[in-house]
Design goal:
Strand order of the largest sheet: 5-4-1-8-11-12-13-14-15
CATH superfamily: Ribokinase
Structural class: alpha/beta
Largest sheet: 9 strands, mixed
């Protein structure tokens, strides 16, 4: 058995590396709380508005800082040379996130998303400007000079340049992940939940060069063709397990983690399975769902970086996601590790998945 697998790490990183590099989508979210989602040509009222972080690396690095990570956090990507880009840099600086590899583009604006959130349901609709994220390909990254432990890339399917085909690796994202791995980093991916048939052609090539694949059940289903949700929206656990098996067959190394409102499921390449119910949230607890998946990913990556047991990684993940749900922005609700463990103790887990 690989002695550096997630199952063998008990007391922290065993390879001397520390830190998480996160690259991909850097987005400014304009979160608008509305009274209803209108039909076309009709009006809805904006009841509140706030600006927040968006995109996988931005959310995850801020979440890790809020959790209290004591290892280096490194930003990678492209932003515009504009006011939203300056705001991103200021946010990173205030959370001690290294920005040397977060480059400014003259060719494109900073990416942003208008997030329309219905107050009564928490349901969200996104209007997205791809901006500078669309041209970033990671070619400037020198992984050989990095002592980070993990390189996280997200979101696949929302990074135009990296989603393009590569003659050897399948996609340019897969080639980037391979470069990180060859330099000694573990790799992690996340995917955007879009309504398309592109998942298999973009996600599967990346899996071969991925140590930690962390997706939601919708993305896993679209990647593998498995119907993980039934017609009544119930979770099909067998289909979920089959989807994870397919992802491992496509080369995913170490562990595949799937999260969903009911909890999370993980399986290692050696076949060990973990089920983790989500927290029992009281009525009116949820203020917004934006960023909950990234908070889960951040909590899980924190545990993986620190060499914790997979079950504990999932517990931190669902706890971080729960704290995220307490605020309408993507990151401002995420608590410290102590706060996550406290809310987990107070609310408890669902009885089952």
């Amino acid at each position: 058995m690989d002695m550096n697998s997630v199952e063998e790490k008990k007391g922290g990183p065993v390879d001397g590396r520390r830190g998480i590099m996160a690259g991909g989508n850097w987005i400014v979210d304009q979160v608008k709380i509305i009274d209803t989602y209108p039909a076309q040509d009709q009006l809805a009222n904006i009841e509140a508005q706030s600006q927040g972080t968006g995109g996988s690396p931005f959310n995850i690095l801020i979440d890790l800082a809020r959790i209290g990570a004591e290892f280096p956090l490194i930003a990678c990507g492209s932003i515009g040379k504009d006011a939203p880009g300056k705001w991103i840099l200021d946010q990173c600086r205030s959370h001690n996130i290294a920005i040397d590899q977060l480059s400014g583009s003259d060719a494109s604006p900073t990416s942003y998303t208008d997030v329309m959130t219905v107050r009564s349901t928490g349901r969200r609709t996104f209007f997205h400007q791809r901006g500078a994220n669309a041209i970033w390909d990671g070619s400037e990254l020198d992984f050989s000079a990095s002592t980070a432990r993990i390189f996280h890339l997200g979101y696949l399917l929302l990074l135009d340049a990296l989603d393009e085909p590569h003659p050897e690796f399948g996609t340019r994202a897969a080639e980037l992940l391979n470069r990180a791995r060859e330099a000694g980093l573990k790799t992690s991916i996340d995917v955007v939940s879009e309504d398309s048939d592109r998942f298999a052609s973009i996600v599967n090539p990346a899996l071969k060069y991925t140590d930690y694949a962390i997706l939601n059940e919708i993305e896993a289903g679209k990647t593998t063709g498995e119907s993980i949700r039934g017609a009544d929206n119930s979770l099909n656990k067998t289909a979920l397990q089959n989807a994870v098996s397919q992802m491992i067959d496509h080369g995913a190394g170490n562990v595949v983690v799937i999260h969903f409102p009911e909890g999370a499921y993980a399986r290692t390449v050696s076949g060990k399975e973990y089920w983790q119910p989500s927290l029992k949230l009281p009525d009116n607890f949820i203020k917004g769902g934006a960023g909950a998946g990234d908070a889960f990913c951040a909590g899980t990556l924190y545990g993986l970086h620190e060499g914790l047991d997979v079950q504990e990684c999932l517990r931190i993940g669902v706890g971080a996601a729960a704290t995220s749900l307490s605020h309408p922005t993507c990151t401002e609700g995420v608590g410290t590790l102590d706060a996550i463990r406290q809310i987990t103790s107070e609310l408890g887990f669902r009885d089952s998945i």
